[in-house]
Design brief:
Layout (H helix, E strand, L loop, with lengths): L8 H5 L11 H8 L6 H5 L5 E4 L15 E14 L5 E9 L2 E8 L4 H4 L5 E6 L1 E4 L2 E5 L2 E4 L7 E4 L10 H15 L10 H6 L5 H9 L4 H33 L10 H9 L6 H15 L5 E6 L5 H14 L3 E5 L3 H15 L3 E3 L7 E3 L2 E4 L5 H13 L4 E4 L13 E7 L6 H10 L6 E6 L5 H7 L4 E5 L10 E6 L1 H16 L3 E5 L7 H17 L7 E4 L5 H12 L5 E4 L12 E6 L7 H8 L10 E6 L7 H8 L3 H12 L2 H5 L17 H17 L7 H10 L2 H7 L3
Parallel strand pairs: 4-7, 10-17, 10-18, 11-15, 11-16, 14-15, 16-17, 19-24, 20-22, 20-23, 21-22, 23-24
Antiparallel strand pairs: 1-9, 2-3, 2-5, 3-4, 5-8, 6-7, 12-13
Helix pairs in contact: 7-8, 8-23, 9-11, 10-11, 15-23, 20-21
Bound molecules: adenosine-5'-diphosphate and magnesium ion.
The site of magnesium ion has 11 residues, from helix 10.
Amino acid sequence: MSERPPITLRDLAAIDVAQLRGVGDKKRTALAAFDVHNVLDLVTNYPRRWVDRTNEARIADLVPGEEALVLVTVRTVTKRMTRNRRTMVNVQVGDGSGRMHVVFFNQPWRERQLKEGLQIALYGKPDTYRGGLQMANPIVDLIGDRTGRIVPIYPQSEKVQLTTWEVASFVEEALRRCAERGIADPVPVEVTDRLDLMARGQAFASIHAPESMREKEAARRRLAFDELLRVQLVLVLRKRELERTSRGIAHDVDGELVQRFLEALPYPLTGAQRRAIAQIEVDLATPQPMHRLLQGDVGAGKTVVAVSTLLAAVQGGHQGALMAPTEVLAEQHATGVRELLGELRVPDPGNLFGDRPLRVELLTNRVTGAERKDVLAGLADGTVDIAIGTHALIQEGVEFSSLGAVVVDEQHRFGVEQRAALRDKSGGHVPDVLVMTATPIPRTAAMTVYGDLDVSVLDELPPGRTPIVTKWANGPMLEAEVWADVRHEVGEGRQAYVVCPLIDESEKLEVASAEETFQRLSNDELKGLRLGLLHGRLTPAEKEMTMSLFRSGQLDVLVATTVIEVGVDVPNATVMVILDADRFGIAQLHQLRGRVGRGTHESMCWLVTQEHDGGNPRVEALVASTDGFELAEVDLDLRGEGTLMSTMQKGRSDLKLASLRRDRQLVAKAREAAFEIVDADPGLEQHPVLLDELDLLFTDEDEDFLAKS
Ligand code: ADP
Ligand code: MG
């Protein structure tokens, strides 16, 4: 008989837990409540923590009201009836550190179960009772013959009666039955050796029954790596496949249009801008379509990079498109880009003068009638060089003559379908795509969230900016100082923003609160100043009216909801006041703050909150740093990756142990390994087990989703 190959994850997934000894109908149902149906589910149902018996789980450490587990010895057991005829079993337990009273109601059999001298684990919520500690109806586990120093604690619930020891024993049996064939380890040995990773089979055993916390940690690291590697493999496979199968344009990056544009700028590029443009040009010059993310803090100067990308397409006779998430932003971009381009002319041999003016057109759903027809015709015949707009740009009925480069502003997901739509619009080739985001996310998180993109970073602000001084007005006493600052700045000829409290539930309430704030400030704190009000319920014409009054200095203070979060650029505004700042997230506060500090005058940002006794880590982080990347790290630390990953819920299903926060380095290593593996074996033919795992653990939808960022 030939030797059977090691057991794969797919093999494990094919075995129902009912096949394990001790798992009958009842336990099967209980396990199902934790989404454990098969043996793969079981062995990847990891302990939620591990208790080191020698120095944890002691009575002395219990805190009333907080659920905890203690390992104790039974001292005495007595039973009696209560007045309303319930049985009550009283148990005294103790460990080296103290004693505790345990009471069980309506569990008469506890008297027989719990004998003096027995070692048990109790899980419950201690209370104080008659000056001592008491637990009522805790979950009891008999430690029995489990002698390991480290006790794994599995997710438990009161409802389903499934003890941590039962789970442990099922896992133990499952792994014992795998022992003969062993568990397959499809990760190339070069990788596991280089990263000093424990064998996978050993890792499963060690994470469930470690001899030491160190062993547990090594096991966790190995299994977390596997999770991250699988995600990266999906992303890298997709990336490479796109590169292989899609025909792009090898752009002429040495043309003179870009050069003339850059030379005409009133300032030299920052080092970071030069680096980003160089990286982009390398991508543009190759025949594979670019798919790159440009991360840069507010004010870092992304627009110049975007425009030079579009012009690189234009100088080779193609077209460029800039896509913004909203019509207002598209309009602002159109104004800004036209200004930036100035009188730039495009070489045109067909013209008497040898060139013609560059043609930039706006296309949103607000552009209608004859104007729309004209723009559409220009896109189709190639006379429009740069189109700026919303998603309207890739809608049905919009044809480009030859779309060469697309810049997508602000992190709306630009997915597979959009790319396909672009390909259809541009004569079969795929345009080069640059996605810009002003919300930096930490590098390793970007590798997962935007895993099939290359990343360029603008990590340097243009010179001459005076950093924004940020202060926290903690409570009403300090608020007076805020309004005094606003008055002072207005007295100096500057302007201010006041951002009204964020109200999640309803725009209507938010508008009401903005109106109220506007009234109050007009009549009281800022009486005598010229105030304007901006919110989402105004018509576009009203908004534009208010904005232009503010821009031209005819308003001193703009009271607004978060509609000003992006795109508003008034260099003369030097004060930002954010009310109820603790309702905003770090990234949003940072975005809002970025509305000031855009000119040469020193700017300040006041974060106003109700009085806080303790600290407020988010507000304090903003006070401490103006660096978006640093703040992104803090944010990830504070929130965990939960929120970040919520945008990719599905692909997350396989990340049980790995944490983008804790495992930053492992993410980078996994990505590196994924490139290594895929570049040596693009179809994973030499790695059938690994390929099969991707197939098993990710649905098609996941794979699409992961690659969609
Ligand atoms: P972002 O889009 O990254 O928030 P912008 O492209 O709007 O930033 O640029 C912010 C401001 O900085 C603009 O007023 C722009 O003119 C200016 N700017 C951009 N690059 C430079 C530079 N290299 N030197 C000086 N000012 C710059
Ligand atoms: Mg290219």
